[in-house]
Amino acid sequence: MISVLVPQNRPGGLDVLFSGLARQTLPSDQFELVLIDDLHAYRADLVREYAARRDLQVTHVPPHGVPRLPSGLYEPGHYQRALNTGLIHARGDTVLVLCDYTMPHDSTLEVHNSFQRGMAAIGERWCLGGQVDCVDITPHLHADFPRLYGWLAMGHDPARYTEETYQPWLSPRTRIALGNKWRAAYERDLKAGILDRFMWSVFAEPVTPETDISRFRVWQRDKSETARGQIHHQLMNLKNNSFALEELLAVRGFDEDLDGCHGHQDSELAGRLEANRGMRYMLYHPASVTLFEAHGIGIIRGYWKPEDHNLKAYNRKWDSGVWTGGSELDLRGMREELRAASGSA
Fold first, then answer.
1. Whether this model's pTM surpasses 0.85
2. 133 contacts 49 by C-beta, under 8 angstroms
3. Alpha-carbon distance 151 to 165, whole Å?
4. What does the pLDDT average to over 221-243?
5. Residue 311 has pLDDT above 90, yes or no
6. Where along the chain do its domains lie?
7. 36's torsion region: left (phi>0), alpha (psi -120 to 50) or beta?
8. Among 24-28, 98-102, 208-212, 261-265, which stretch is predicted with the lowest mean pLDDT?
9. Do the beta carbons of residue 128 and residue 116 sit within 8 Å?
10. Sheet holding 94-98, edge to edge
């Protein structure tokens, strides 16, 4: 079985994810979705309903030990804590990590699953990554969805990038002020129930398995210009990558100390796996997904940290050659406890 781990911290996006999973060529009894959701309390019933409707195996949980959900997305290391929560609940031998607002192409899970099974059979350790096509969601947003919590609120559309509109995010003073303003609006609207109607989808026409997604403009094809084959670990990202579960557990999962707003959690994990487990990295474009770029409408995690916070943490490990880190949680112990509890239930 392959476990699809998706950390979810924004309203909407579930129509995209569930529609992609419903179209998979891999039989539904051979994969599961582990949805780690800040908004679990707001849409647990919706997830149960659509999982049954789409005949999907779904485990829907909040991030472990984050006491102030949904505001917990501001807690240090929250994104990695969500992924580590997914490792606790995953039942598959293979783990595929996707972003929220991602639609895997029809054969994506089958490609990842087949590759990892083949590597396990010959005792080799590889991470498989695929192409990520980013599409523009702004023209498709519901007219009533508040554009108050992300880059669109400062006039910056990531699908129409300009230096001028992005500049406020680059200044620590204005970035923190913007983040605090968005946070206040987000928490206010959640409390008032304004976002209840958008928990499943933020689009005027929700995505379904029958939707022709070519109507969404592709504005970036990540990794499309990188040649197929073995790649450097720095090119790995957590948007569409699969691993053997055991390898992630062996390095204590995702490093919760990388809690800034701009990436490198993926490069750090890749470097740690390479140094400690001999992991290698393969790029195979047909294992592709479509990412419905949602930074414009949702809070950016870690906005209070400097832009280069995570990069500096990664560089310290690269320069020293000491690749430690991971979760403070006892992932193996918690997995055993969870299975024991399930067995006795």
1. yes
2. no
3. 9
4. 88
5. no
6. 2-326
7. beta
8. 261-265
9. yes
10. 58-61, 31-37, 2-8, 94-98, 240-244, 126-129, 280-283, 229-231
Tell me how far apart the alpha carbons of residues 74 and 298 are, in angstroms, rounded to a whole number.
Answer: 12
**DSSP one-letter string for 45-108:** HHHHHHHHHTT--EEEEPPTT-TTTTGGGGSTTHHHHHHHHHHHH--SSEEEEE-TTEEE-TTH
Can you read off the two tokens belonging to residue 99? 């972003």
Return the exposure string of 165-199: e unless at least 16 CB atoms fall within 10 Å of the residue's CB, then b. beebbeeeeebeebbeebbebbeebbeeebbeebb
Mean per-residue pLDDT for 206-233?
Answer: 92
| β-pair partners for 60 | 35
Answer for the pair 15, 200: CB distance below 8 angstroms, yes or no.
yes
pLDDT-based confidence at 127, cuts 50/70/90?
very high
- φ and ψ at 177, to 5 degrees? -65, -45
d(CA 292, CA 199): 16
3-state secondary structure (DSSP) of residue 147:
coil
- Average pLDDT of the residues of the chain: 91
The amino acid at 34: V
The C-alpha R_g of the chain, in whole angstroms, comes to 19
**Quick one: how many helices (H) and strands (E) in the chain?**
10, 12
If you write DSSP's letter for every residue of 185-241 in order, what string do you get?
HHHHHHHHTTTGGGSS--BSS---TT--GGGSPEEEEETTTSPSEEE-GGG--TTEE
Packing angle of the helix pair 172-192, 163-170 (nearest 10 deg): 90
Q: Evaluate whether 249 touches 334 at the Cβ level (below 8 Å).
A: no
User: At a CB cut-off of 8 Å and minimum separation 6, what does 118 contact?
Assistant: none
CATH class of 2-326: alpha beta
